[in-house]
C-alpha cells in the first residue's frame, strides 16, 4: 500500500517542463525532426507544406560544412558528411545561398533549424582529397588549407581510441581514424567560434554538437561562451542564446558521463532508445514505465534530448527502426506522450547496405522525395517516418498536452498500460497476447473523440475508431491484441475532439 502510494505520487508529480525558452520553438509547437541528408531547398519546402501545419517545432539538418567527397563501391557513403574539409557552407545539400533561403523560410513559418556541427575532427585518410566546395587537403601532413589548419592544430602524438575507459584517450586520440583537432589551442577555438557564429548569423536556432564526448568539457565551455546570441532578423527575441545539444553516447559504466556536459547544454540521451526498444519488443514489461525518466537512471528531463533511433544507431545498434513498424510506432508514441525530455524523431531513407548514402542520381546528386496524395513521401528511396500518421498525430498530441503531468496511470500488471496528460490527452498501449478491453479513467471532459492512431478526423466523423468519454471521465477502451497498432490516443484538440459539452453558463 505504501509503495503503491509512493509510485502514484511520483507519477502525478511528473509535469512537463517548458522547454520553449531554451529550444526557441514556438509555444504551440514541439518535437525536432531529423531530416537526414535532405537538401536545403527540400527542407524549406517541407517546413512550409507539412512541418509547420502539423506542429513540428524544428529540424535537425545534416552537417552544412564542406566534407570530403568519398566514392566507395560505386556510391557516396553517408559518413562522408562527417569528414570535414573546411567550414565553407557547400555540400550535396546545397550552398550558402540555399542554406540562407532555408532558414528564412522555415523561421518565417515558425520551424527552427538546428545545425549538426562537426568540430571534433577533420577527415580520415582517403585516396581522394577534394571536398564538396573544391578544397583540397594533404592528409599525411594534416594540412587543410580551406580552414586553414596545419599539423600544429591537431593532437599529438597521433593515437587511436582503443580503451573507452580512459577518458584522456577518448578525448585526445582519433575517433575511427579521423584526424583529431586540439580544441585547447586558441587558434582552433577561434576557427570553431567563427564557424558557429556564421551559422547563427544565417538564422539557425541552435547546434547539435557531434562527438562532444570526444572533446574536453572545459574546451567546449570556452567555445560556447564566445557564441553570439540568435539573429533577431529571423524573429528571435533579443539576447537569446543558441540552443546547444551535445552528442554524448553513454550506456553506463564509462568514465565519461553526460552530467559533465549538462552544465553546458543538453545531451543526447541514447539510453531512451535502448530501454524503449527492450520494452516495446516485449523483453521488459510495459508496467515498469510507471516511473519512466529519471526513475530509470536517465539524465534529468530538462537536459535530455530524447530519441528512439538516429542515423548512427539505426545502422550499428540493436534499436527499433522503421524495419519494425508496429513496435517502432509504439515506442515513439510513448516518447511523445510522456513529458520526459525534448524529443526528436528520425526521418530516413531505405538502405540495405548500412554505408549507403542518400537517394541520388548516379550516386552523386541527392534526389528529392516524392510527396504522395496520402501525405507520405515514400518513393525515390525515402521513408519519411515523420509523415507517418501515427507519428505526426502524436506530435499534435504532445502540443495539446503541454504543461500537464502524467495522471490516471493504469496497468494490468504486465503489458497493458494507460495514462492521461492532465485533462488534455489520454493514451493506452496493449502489448499483451490478449485484448485490452477496459473501462478506464481518461481525465478528459465528456464527449466524443477520434482515436488519432487508427485514423483522423474528417468533418464530424472519424476515419478510425471513436471513443466516447462519459460524464465521470471514464471511457470504454478496446485495443485488440492483433490490431495494426498497439496503441490508442485521444486529446482535446481539433484533430481528435468531435464533441464537447459547453462550459457551464454558456
UniProtKB/TrEMBL annotation:
Principal EC category: hydrolase
Signal peptide (from-to): 1-17
The enzyme's E.C. designation: 3.2.1.1
Named cofactor requirement(s): chloride; Ca(2+)
Domain Alpha-amylase C-terminal, residue spans: 407-495
Swiss-Prot/TrEMBL catalytic activity: Endohydrolysis of (1->4)-alpha-D-glucosidic linkages in polysaccharides containing three or more (1->4)-alpha-linked D-glucose units
Keywords assigned by UniProt, alphabetized: Calcium, Carbohydrate metabolism, Chloride, Disulfide bond, Glycosidase, Hydrolase, Metal-binding, Signal
GO molecular function: alpha-amylase activity; metal ion binding
Entry-linked Gene3D superfamilies: Glycosidases, Golgi alpha-mannosidase II
Superkingdom of origin: Eukaryota
GO BP term (any one): carbohydrate metabolic process
PANTHER family: ALPHA-AMYLASE
Description of how the protein assembles with itself and partners: Monomer.
Record protein name field: Alpha-amylase
Naturally occurring in which organism (per UniProt): Plutella xylostella (Diamondback moth)
Amino acid at each position: 500500500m505504501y509503495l503503491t502510494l509512493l509510485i502514484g505520487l511520483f507519477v502525478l508529480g511528473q509535469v512537463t517542463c517548458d522547454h520553449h525558452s531554451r529550444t526557441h520553438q514556438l509555444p504551440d509547437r514541439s518535437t525536432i525532426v531529423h531530416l537526414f541528408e535532405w537538401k536545403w531547398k527540400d527542407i524549406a519546402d517541407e517546413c512550409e507544406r507539412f512541418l509547420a501545419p502539423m506542429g513540428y517545432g524544428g529540424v535537425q539538418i545534416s552537417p552544412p560544412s564542406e566534407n570530403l567527397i568519398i566514392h566507395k563501391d560505386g556510391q557516396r557513403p553517408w559518413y562522408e558528411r562527417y569528414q570535414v574539409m573546411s567550414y565553407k557552407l557547400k555540400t550535396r545539400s546545397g550552398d550558402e545561398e540555399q542554406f540562407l533561403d532555408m532558414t528564412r523560410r522555415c523561421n518565417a513559418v515558425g520551424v527552427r533549424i538546428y545545425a549538426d556541427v562537426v568540430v571534433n575532427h577533420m577527415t580520415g585518410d582517403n585516396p581522394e582529397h577534394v571536398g564538396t566546395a573544391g578544397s583540397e587537403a594533404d592528409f599525411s601532413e594534416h594540412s587543410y588549407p580551406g580552414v586553414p589548419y596545419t599539423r600544429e592544430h591537431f593532437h599529438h602524438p597521433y593515437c587511436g581510441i582503443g580503451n573507452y575507459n580512459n577518458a584522456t584517450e577518448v578525448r585526445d586520440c582519433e575517433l575511427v581514424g579521423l584526424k583529431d583537432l586540439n580544441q585547447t589551442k586558441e587558434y582552433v577555438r577561434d576557427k570553431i567560434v567563427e564557424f558557429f557564429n556564421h551559422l547563427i548569423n544565417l538564422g539557425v536556432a541552435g547546434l547539435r554538437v557531434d562527438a562532444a564526448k570526444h572533446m574536453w568539457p572545459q574546451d567546449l565551455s570556452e567555445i560556447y561562451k564566445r557564441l553570439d546570441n540568435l539573429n533577431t532578423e529571423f524573429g528571435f527575441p533579443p539576447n537569446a542564446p543558441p540552443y546547444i545539444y551535445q552528442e554524448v553516447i553513454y550506456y553506463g559504466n564509462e568514465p565519461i558521463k553526460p552530467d559533465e556536459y549538462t552544465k553546458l547544454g543538453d545531451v543526447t540521451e541514447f539510453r531512451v532508445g535502448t530501454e524503449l526498444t527492450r520494452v516495446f519488443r516485449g523483453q521488459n514489461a510495459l508496467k515498469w514505465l510507471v516511473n519512466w525518466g529519471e526513475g530509470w537512471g536517465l539524465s534529468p528531463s530538462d537536459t535530455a534530448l530524447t530519441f528512439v533511433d538516429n542515423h548512427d544507431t539505426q545502422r550499428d545498434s540493436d534499436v527499433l527502426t522503421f524495419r519494425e513498424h508496429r513496435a517502432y510506432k509504439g515506442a515513439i508514441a510513448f516518447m511523445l506522450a510522456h513529458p520526459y525530455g525534448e524529443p526528436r524523431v528520425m526521418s530516413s531513407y531505405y538502405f540495405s547496405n548500412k554505408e549507403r548514402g542518400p537517394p541520388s542520381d548516379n550516386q552523386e546528386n541527392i534526389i528529392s522525395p516524392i510527396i504522395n496524395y496520402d501525405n507520405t513521401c515514400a518513393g525515390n528511396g525515402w521513408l519519411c517516418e515523420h509523415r507517418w500518421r501515427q507519428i505526426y498525430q502524436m506530435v499534435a498530441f504532445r502540443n495539446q498536452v503541454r504543461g500537464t503531468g502524467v495522471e490516471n496511470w493504469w496497468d494490468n500488471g504486465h503489458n497493458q498500460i494507460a495514462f492521461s496528460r492532465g485533462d488534455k490527452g489520454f493514451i493506452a498501449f496493449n502489448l499483451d497476447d490478449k485484448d485490452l478491453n477496459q473501462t478506464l479513467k481518461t481525465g478528459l471532459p465528456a464527449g466524443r473523440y477520434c482515436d488519432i492512431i487508427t485514423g483522423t478526423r474528417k468533418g464530424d466523423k472519424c476515419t478510425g475508431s471513436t471513443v466516447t468519454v462519459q460524464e465521470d471521465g471514464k471511457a470504454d477502451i478496446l485495443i485488440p491484441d492483433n490490431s495494426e497498432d498497439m496503441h490508442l490516443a485521444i486529446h482535446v484538440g481539433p484533430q481528435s475532439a468531435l464533441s464537447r459539452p459547453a462550459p457551464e453558463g454558456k
